[in-house]
Write a structure and sequence with these properties.
12 helices; DNA-binding; Rossmann fold; homodimer; 3 domains; alpha/beta; 337 residues; six-stranded mixed beta sheet
DNA sequence: GTGAAAGCGCTAACAT
DNA sequence: ATGTTAGCGCTTTCAC
């Protein structure tokens, strides 16, 4: 059995009381220099580490934050997590990552698991399936600090940080139009996600601005964000079966972008000759792809950092916070032709 | 402040003692049916969840396991993590993921952080920099259950699970030879990693079997596994500057494979005409690449599952385990030409 | 069938 | 400057 040393072990070995040892280790002013040295040295020698569970129980905080994302294999999220970690570890917090795989149920389970006092705060990007956010509302009402990023709810009043999705979508769509495309389809994640709504808005705005009609047949939603390959395949097939086939697709997500390219390749549709493609993706290997795809990149790392800063501010605030920020960060378009 | 209900809250509300409530909730035989019902219903109503820190303190276990990998953005690891999670959650364990980013120091810090009783066991794949494993030996000697996977140490006696690296490397190299390549280079991670040693062995075995010489100039190690792009760039450039340039490269890792393709593209070296490429990679987008690359895939998900099974067996074993398994799983070659 | 009390490891108020 | 004690939330003897 793994039984790390405790304060009591030190106290017994040195003939002191546990409180003296505790105070010595935390360098309190009331302890004499010699005692401190004695304790420090011995603790060092036996490699003493305070029991975090005892600390948490006592101090009613765990120094750890929970993260809820759809999946770490997504480049956007893995980069965001790196940003989260960089801030968290600097400030002495553990990071507990959970994945929803775009499932509402897993999200609910993960959140409840995290909640019961094993974390001090929550960093969340909603799953594609999530329409009902009551599991978050419940915790939020009871004072659990939480910050949403990327996919945010509209009915919870707390800090939020998002990319400028509308602008990104507008630029990507405009880019396709300027490249000469006239019939631009839109492949999106589930229709209730904030990112879907905003990106759709940017897409339609670009069409309007360039005097193009919005064709409802050209807009396809994937309720699970392309988590199941069939979803994407189905959506793309529908587009290709239209009488008036699109000549370009604007894709509203990382996984969907990859999935769509896979389907196009499978269907032997040449990019960009038969179909131009642009979409949101933080993949770092787009340059290696056979089919060039213009991409909208989100500042994932920075978003993770900012979200964590905000969360720690909520957690460590002495007074209840009532003013919440809604931070929006610009995206960047990488054109490829 | 977030203050979830406690046993005491239930006890007070119902005019019972905390011990009765505790027993009722855990369905002990000594409690009357009516009291149980009373307690259950009330607990349900206020959404009572036991405080995990108090439980951990009491029971001296945390029901969580720590995972140490180089980075979640790596496809092999993200798939392995999915395997780990699937088993862990089924058995009621939390999973705490930490990344080393191939740094020995981060590995050491992460492990010490995890160790001090905030986890019941450890699942580890060593960082590229790690030559000294004393931080693991220390914990291992004190009884911390741990299982190594993928990149394993040779001086710690515990369960290990690896892909059949030698076989995979042999097949990939043989494939290059059969495609007509004669001068096959080898791009590897740091030279002390178990995976590097085994893959190098498979590479040389394949050359020998086909009557080819091993040319030391053709073997390049990247001490940080290609974590820094310059590393890979430097190694590939050296290969290209040789008088007798290689006509193929066998690459021993996911990140290196991607990195190498990027460098080749940058140098405008055509694949496979000027340079054939084969290597270990669990990327799911290799099919989309402009340059075809044969890949050795490891059964990452299954390895994660198996490692977790083994770890839980160690953790939950009543008696000290002294017999350790060294499980080796076959890889699969996906040829592309 | 239920309650009182001790203890897991730690800190802090209260002695001395 | 150091020791004693209570308590964080929970389980588990030991009483009744």
């Amino acid at each position: 059995m793994f039984e790390p040393p405790t304060l009591k072990d030190i106290a017994n070995a040195l003939g002191l009381s546990t409180s003296t040892v505790s105070r010595a280790l935390r360098d309190t002013y009331e302890i004499s220099a010699k005692t401190k040295k004695l304790v420090f040295d011995y603790a060092e020698k036996i490699n003493y580490q305070p029991n975090p569970n005892a600390l948490s129980l006592k101090e009613r905080r765990t120094k750890s934050i929970g993260v809820v994302v759809s999946e770490v294999a997504n480049h956007y999220f893995s980069q965001a997590i790196n940003g989260i970690e960089s801030i968290a570890y600097d400030r002495g917090y553990h990071v507990i990552i959970t994945q929803t795989h775009e499932s509402y149920l897993r999200e609910k389970i993960n959140v409840q698991h995290l909640a019961s006092r094993s974390i001090d705060g929550l960093l969340v990007s909603l799953s594609a399936e999530t329409a009902d956010t009551s599991h978050f509302n419940y915790l939020h009402e009871r004072g659990m600090p939480m910050v949403f990023f990327d996919r945010v709810p509209n009915n919870i009043n707390t800090h939020k940080i998002t990319a400028n999705n509308e602008q990104g979508a507008f630029e990507a769509t405009s880019h396709l139009i300027k490249s000469g495309c006239k019939r631009i389809a839109h492949l999106a994640s589930s229709d209730h996600l904030s990112i879907s709504i905003e990106r759709l808005r940017g897409y339609t705005a670009a069409l309007h601005q360039h005097g193009l009609q919005v064709n409802p047949d050209y807009i396809k939603h994937c309720p699970h964000g392309g988590m199941f390959p069939e979803e994407t395949e189905h959506a793309v097939s529908e587009l290709m079966n239209l009488k008036d086939k699109p000549d370009a697709i604007f894709i509203a997500g990382d996984r969907l972008s990859i999935g769509c390219l896979e389907v196009l390749k499978k269907l032997n549709i040449k990019v960009p000759e038969q179909m131009a493609v642009a979409g949101f993706s933080n993949s770092n290997v787009l340059d290696l792809f056979e089919y060039p795809m213009s991409s909208v990149r989100q500042p994932a790392f920075e978003m993770g950092e900012a979200a964590t800063e905000m969360l720690l501010q909520l957690i460590e605030s002495k007074y209840p916070v009532t003013e919440f920020k809604d931070k929006v960060i610009d995206t960047e378009l990488f054109a490829r032709d």
